[in-house]
Amino acid sequence: MSDITETEKIEQARIKEQDRNRRWEMAYKARIRQIVPGLCLGNVQASHHKETLLRNHINAMVSLTDAHWTWWRSTTRSAGIPEDRHKWVQCVDSSTQNLLVHMSDICDFIDQMACPALSSLSSLHVQPEQDADTHTATNANDRSSDANAPPKLY
């Protein structure tokens, strides 16, 4: 026989639900992380969140998505990314998706859009992950207070 009262069961269920909601909200929060000066990595929510793009000085982006690009046309345009500065790669989120076939075009686009700080790098330094529970983390070197910060490629 269990020593847990009905009230305790209800409280445990409430705590479990709050935890599930917290994890769900974190999964859908717009996040961007600077990889190197001038190059950021972010999630899909950040790709059309105007305040996040402006705060991080994003002026171009590459999107890897299985969503039809016309759906994004209005949201990224209203967020300030013009069509000629947005590269679309139609793909599925799968471990079997071959992204290497797209890398040459993606790298060419990044080279064309890159700010001088990124263009001057001879190699990319890999920074350790700051938040192991997410694919991207908040930029530790956030330059949002620097109005003269160079634009970044997202």
From TrEMBL:
Disordered: annotated segments: 126-154
Superkingdom in the source lineage: Eukaryota
CDD domains assigned to the protein according to its UniProt record, in alphabetical order: DSP
InterPro entries listed in its UniProt record: Prot-tyrosine_phosphatase-like (IPR029021)
Descriptive protein name: Dual specificity phosphatase Yvh1
